[in-house]
Amino acid sequence: QKEVEQNSGPLSVPEGAIASLNCTYSDRGSQSFFWYRQYSGKSPELIMSIYSNGDKEDGRFTAQLNKASQYVSLLIRDSQPSDSATYLCAAMEYGNKLVFGAGTILRVKS
Amino acid sequence: DTAVSQTPKYLVTQMGNDKSIKCEQNLGHDTMYWYKQDSKKFLKIMFSYNNKELIINETVPNRFSPKSPDKAHLNLHINSLELGDSAVYFCASSPFIDGQETQYFGPGTRLLVL
Questions:
Q1: Of the listed ranges A87-101, B18-32, B66-80, the one predicted with least confidence
Q2: Engineered SS bond to A36: which of A25, A27, A78, A88, CB 3.0-4.6 Å?
Q3: Distance from the B34 Cα atom to the nearest Cα atom in chain A, whole angstroms
């Protein structure tokens, strides 16, 4: 069973700090990785996608991928209370199958 | 201008009943999916269709039957509902770009089986 592992948290950070969310995956064949944000009672919303080793930045968000270590991370700079949500890491397997981690709860304290 | 829509938003029903959930996307995507999110918030794929053809069929009881009348619609019919079917069911869609298909989710259907 191919898996995506995340620390369930909650991860608590003060407003303005950097939040660091981590994820590991078991399928070495996965090439595409995604971070989704899910507010309570809402649907998952895409934050970032990353396909190549290294960093990818989009505004306050930076995704990092290390395929050798099978590790994906998401950094949120200048964290805001509105960033408080569950962050889902997902790896794409053969056949466009997205395998999700259980999610990390992030709480940003004002 | 909703991209991926689902009906109904909430569904409360008795054990043993049969129910359907409908999904429509107006993004022009070729592929549509059904996911189940259980009480522990774990999101797991059930089915996917590409241009009306079944692509992914995970280990799901055969009481669940997807139907895709055209590439913009993917419905989910559930027979003989059980308590364990209570969950949030999300529809999603993605374009067909090999290896980089971002999936966009609908608002979810909250199913409660009593």
A1: A87-101
A2: A88
A3: 11
